[in-house]
Structure formats: structure tokens, C-alpha cells
Amino acid sequence: MRRFFKIIKNTFLSLLIIIAILAVVTFFYMRQPQFGAEPAGERLTRIEKSSHYKNGQFHNQIEKPTISEGYSIAGEIYSTLFKSHPRTSPVDHIPSIKTNLFNIPLDSNVLVWFGHSSCFIQLDGKRILIDPVFSERASPLPWGPKAYEGSNIYTAADIPTIDYLIISHDHYDHLDYQTVVALRDKVKHVICGLGVGAHFEYWGYPEEKLIEKDWNEQINIDSNYTIYTAPTHHESGRGLRSAKTLWMSYIIQSPSMKIYYSGDGGYDNHYAEAGKKFGPIDLAIIENGQYDKAWRSVHNLPEDVLQAAKDLKAKSVLPVHSSKFTLGKHPWDEPLIKIYELTKANHIPLLTPMIGEIVYLDHRKQLFKQWWRGIK
To answer: Could you tell me which CATH number the domain at 101-360 has?
Structure first.
């Protein structure tokens, strides 16, 4: 019996040592710069004045659980680890076109999609870059989600001077440390949600470049050029603690058109609110991919994208958040297949450019291929 208790004691001590080692390794690993910094000082004081910030966290307009009714975190972990989910990543290369952005005349109104949610917009003389991620992985971990073959053709060196870098939130697939550091000298201004500026300052961006906003605020670019901030239903976080920074959607209103960018988020009344205030929207860039019914509250399903487009009174839709990283359990091309059929049945123009292909924003009848068809 004494020997048995000795074995139990030694096993327990060994487990404690392993846990302690893991804790120390995690502590030092998370002190690496890619994890960013939490808001503090005057930045935190301003955050605490926001009506959306309570008990040390930001909150959505309408509170609802992240995991949908009928699902559980344990069940989702089990499904991810032990169930088969076919075709979540393509076997073939993703087709693309390497457009030289430096050669695009500044008076041309264009958009170039880089895969996932990253977009370059040149609109009425301003260059805007949205959520750029040019790293191989959408994660600080070396085994995190890797970019599909052929999808990661752009680097920071391919990007011209940017007037406004717009960041929707600080998740790794939208705010990439390596990318924004490489872009630092090319970016004139950064527009982001409250608290996100702490990351940028930590990464060497001067305070005067940072424009941090709450929901329902505006940035006046020129007398008739404004970028509005708006809510979305999502969350944020880069470390072990979440919701310390604010997640956003945006409306870019230039002299010639209105563009809506959803950021990440599940369907809620914020789309109808934006449609009522700003609609009709000329182009709605809406998250459509890396979804699951289990977390529908924080990521749109394709049918939610359709309803969002209707709420926004969108004249055309560009679906994003797909075709580069696998963060969900659905087939990699399912988001495009479904939204194509849904918008076709509802007579809503859908923009489906290849990565790097120029979208001419003034040409309403530009045609796009269903480039995903036939790719395994």
C-alpha cells in the first residue's frame, strides 16, 4: 500500500512539474511581439467611457451566446479533432492574377481582393487597405492555419503608399503582425476600433497615425469624403483574454459611391441599421466563409449574407473571408457556391474576382468567372 501511495505521489508531482513548465513556456512565448499589447493609461481611460464597455470587456449591442443552442464547446472540440470534414482545404492551386498596384492610375476607382478579407481599394483619389494578411499563417503558432497554395501572392513590397489602413478587429486573420510592421512606413493613417491602437503603438506606429473610434463615429477625410464606423456582432482578442478591444464594421462614403465592409460577425440588426442610415449601398463587402451553425452568432452563414445584402439595400455584393485559410469545417468552396446560387436567385449582382484581379468599381456590368469550379 505504501508503494502505491508513493507511485500516486510521484505521478502527481510529475504532473505538477509538467503543468509548471507549460505555464512558464506559455508565459514567455506570449511575450513575443506578435501578441500585441493590451490598452492601458489614457487609452484605457477612454475605453472605459464607452457605453459598450462594461466589467472590463466590450459587449455586443445584443447579448447572445457565442455557441448556438443545441451545441457545446466540448462537442465542437470533439467534432474538430475526431470527425471527418472533407475538402476543407483545396488540393489544387488557387488561381490568381498578380496585378501591379503601382501601375493603376490614381484617378481609377478599383478594388483588388487578396483572399480572405484583405482588400485594396482606390476610390476618388484615396488608397485604402483593409485587413491585410500577407503571412503564410493566420496564427502566431507555427502549426496554425496555412494559406492555400497560390493564394498568398502579395507581400507588403507590392503595396503602394496607403492613405488609410482600416482594421476591423484584432484577430490574427485580420490583424497580422508581420504584415502591418512591414507596411509601417507606407501607411499614413490607421483607422481601428477602440484599444486596437495599443497593438500598433507597441509595433512602432506613432500615435499621430492612429485613429481609434467607437461605434457610430466618423472620420472626415475631405469635405465630401467620410468613413463611418458601425457595429458588428463579433468578439476580439489575441491572447488569453478577450474583448479588450472593439470590433468594427465600416461605411466608406466618397463623392462617387458608398462601400460597406462588414468585418467579421454574425447576422443581427446592425445590417438593417446601416441600411436605414446609409442605404442604398453601392458595394457591400460581407463576410462569407469560415462559418458553422454552432457559432452562427459570430460568423454569417451564406443565407445570412443574402439577408444582410437585402438589409443594406446593396446594389452589389463582394463575399470575403474565404479562399485562403481554413478556419471552419465546411468544404473550402462551399461559401462561394452557396452565395452564388442565393444571389442569383434573388437577382443581386455578385462580384467574384480571382485573387489579384481588378474590380472596376465604376463598371457595373463587369463579368467575373466562377473560378472555384473544377478546383479540387
So the answer is: 3.60.15.10
CA–CA distances in Å: residue 64 to residues 67, 231, 268: 9, 15, 11
* Confidence category of residue 17, pLDDT binned at 50, 70, 90: low
Mean predicted confidence (pLDDT) in 270-297 = 97
Lowest mean pLDDT among 80-94, 166-180, 223-237, 338-352: 80-94
Q: What is the pTM of this model?
A: 0.94
Any idea where the domains of the chain sit in the sequence? 101-360
How confident is the model at residue 15, as a pLDDT? 66
HSE-CB of 112 using CA atoms within 13 angstroms: 25
Residue 332 grid coordinates: 473550402
Three-class secondary structure assignment of 141-185: CCCCCECCCCCCCCCHHHCCCEEEEECCCCCCCCCCHHHHHHCHH
Q: Which residues of 238-253 are buried (b: 16+ CB within 10 A; e: fewer)?
A: beeeebbbbbbbbbbb
Amino acid making up residue 219:
I
